[in-house]
Predict the 3D structure of the following.
Amino acid sequence: MSESTGSVDKICQETDCGEKMAELSPEQRALFKTFTYCPYCAEEMTLVCSRCHEHLTSADFKYCPWCGVEFGA
Ligand SMILES: [Zn+2]
Ligand SMILES: [Zn+2]
């Protein structure tokens, strides 16, 4: 589907939290993947594709079921 690669991101669906996370370094964002709850609002974190931002049901997917991007590499 695409030559580019993506990653499984873990995000909070709250817009405010998403904006805070967007300002973090890649290292800090990587740490967020280990969180279960958002450190800003305590909502449960959601797994999404970094490319199409659709929800993922597993962090172990090798490809995005929505846009076909390959994760990791
Ligand atoms: Zn949040
Ligand atoms: Zn995707």
